[in-house]
Amino acid sequence: MAKLTNLETKLGEVIGLAMAAQSATKKVARLAEKEGNDGLAKQLRTMGEEAAEAEERGTELAGSFEGKEKSKKSGILKEARTVKSKAADMMSTYLDKDADALDGFEFLTMAEASEVGHWSVLKKMGEKARHPGVKELVQWQLPIQKRHLREAMAGSITLAAAEDPSEAA
Ligand SMILES: [Fe+2]
């Protein structure tokens, strides 16, 4: 396996987070549906579709790193799968069987903040490397990830507003 550059590793990380976001949004959408909140569930399905698109376009870009070294793309995707599996572990630790939709949105707030952070790092590295493909991908994804974070936070607040603070948890 070819050794990855920092830029390639960071690309792998955002792809991995996009993979993880698809399972996370699906899981939290189910929790929201269970509580009859179809509006939030629908918003989460859209976020999941956008995550799938991010994975797809990130993977396409990983393919463009091949050139000299055939195994670059597989190295980037291996990094992505490692990140995905770490994120899946975190989700199963945080969202146990007693988790409700509010817990789900709180977890998503962390996950989306992590995506915003990682995409910002990739942006800076892409700028330093003067890599047009990375620049284009980041310009498209970073505003979407910032919106995901706003939506996750807003969803938490909506659910919190509907809870009785003095009721037994
Ligand atoms: Fe996201």
Question: Could you characterize the architecture of this molecule?
Answer:
The protein is built from five helices and no strands. By secondary structure, it is an all-alpha fold. The protein has a single domain, classed as Ferritin, core subunit, four-helix bundle (Ferritin, Up-down Bundle), CATH 1.20.1260.10. Helix 1 runs parallel beside helix 3 and helix 2 runs antiparallel to helix 5. It is elongated. The protein starts with 5 loop residues before the first helix and ends in an 8-residue tail after the last helix. The model has no long low-confidence stretch (mean pLDDT 95). Bound molecules: fe (ii) ion. The site of fe (ii) ion has 7 residues, from helix 2, helix 4 and helix 5.
Offer a quick outline of the entry.
This protein is mainly alpha-helical.
| Number of alpha- plus pi-helical segments | 5
Number of strands: 0
The biggest sheet, with number of strands, parallel, antiparallel or mixed sense and barrel status, is: none
Estimate the global geometry from the Cα principal axes.
elongated
Bound molecules: fe (ii) ion
The unreliable regions are none
**In CATH, what is the homologous superfamily?**
Ferritin, core subunit, four-helix bundle
Multimeric status of the protein: single chain
Helix percentage range: over 70%
Under the CATH scheme, which class?
Mainly Alpha
Q: Structural class, please?
A: mainly alpha
**Distance N to C terminus:** 50 Å
